[in-house]
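Annotators were shown the component list below and the corresponding predicted structure, then asked to write short factual statements about the assembly.
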Amino acid sequence: AQSVTQLGSHVSVSEGALVLLRCNYSSSVPPYLFWYVQYPNQGLQLLLKYTSAATLVKGINGFEAEFKKSETSFHLTKPSAHMSDAAEYFCAVSEDSGGYQKVTFGIGTKLQVIP
Amino acid sequence: GAVVSQHPSWVICKSGTSVKIECRSLDFQATTMFWYRQFPKQSLMLMATSNEGSKATYEQGVEKDKFLINHASLTLSTLTVTSAHPEDSSFYICSAGVTGFAQPQHFGDGTRLSIL
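Structure shown to annotators:
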């Protein structure tokens, strides 16, 4: 089974500063990786996905993530944080589970943006 | 595109009642739908996976008779919490996906269930 580790359950950055949210995965096969964002009392919204086409993936709202196989990482970054980026972010990996897709989520990282 | 509607968004009911939550894919056909439970300040816990026209696959530790899942069509799945008790209070989220492990799931906005 694959797993996802998100380092840092809470991250605080100043408005305009770099955002870096860490995600490491374990997998015996090439993974499909995703980042989702969740605002309070809402479902999850897809930010970006890695499906082996390119190691640097650009997503919505200025976010991007780089797949590094040697480090088994898929960290999420944004050059300049906005107040509206305050939310919970989940890294996820997709795998084949008996012919069906199964997605495993990390514990989530709550991003706080300080004015 | 890829909108998933989940209804209701908030339910408060008495202990012992059954509650049905609907999950609809509005503009696409979902071959697979997923039901998650999220505890406060925690990640999503997959409860079950359902494919249209077949029985749901439940994760270990999830009671099948407690959480009834029906996926009658490619656009609708329902989760019924039977004889709900306070410990069933939680945030339930559905998602819908199409075939393929590289395809992202599309999430509903969740249902907050409070059992008194």
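Statements collected:
1. Chain B has a mean pLDDT of 89.
2. Chain B touches chain A through 30 residues (CB under 8 Å).
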